[in-house]
Amino acid sequence: MATARPAVQDRARPLDVSTRLGNWLRRIPPAAWGVGFLLLILPAFANDFILVQVFGWSLILGMIALSLMFLAGYGGMVSLVQMTVAGCAGYMLAIFGTSAIASISLGWPWWLAVLTAILIATLFGTLSGALAVRTAGIYTIMITLAIAAAFFYFTRQNYTIFNGFSGFNGVRPPVVLGVDWRQPTPFYYLTLVCAALSYAAVLYVSRSPFGLALQGTRDNPRRMAALGFNVTAHRIAAYTFASVFAAVAGILLVWLNSQISPGTAGIGPVIDVLVIAVVGGLGSPIGPFIGAIIYVVLRTFALDALVAVGLDGARFQLLIGLGFLAIVFFSPDGVLGLWERARNRWRHRQDVMRIGEETR
Amino acid sequence: MLLLWLVFAIWPESFEDAFGRKKIFLNALLNGITLGALYFLVASGFTLIFGLMRNVNLAHGSLYLLGGYIGFEIAEWTGSWLFSFVVAFVAVALVGIVLQYVVFRRMEGQELRQTLVTIGISIVLADLMLWTWGGDFYQILTPEWLSGPVETFFVTAIRSSGEPVYLTYPFVRLLILLASLILGIGMWLVLGRTRIGVLIRAGVDDRDMLAASGVRIQLVFLGVFAFGAGLAGMAGVVGGTFQSLAPGEDIRFLLASLVVVIVGGMGSIPGAALGAVLIGLAEQFGSVYVPTYAVVFTFLIMVLVLAFRPQGLLSNR
Question: Which domain holds residue B242?
Answer without folding.
Answer: 21-247
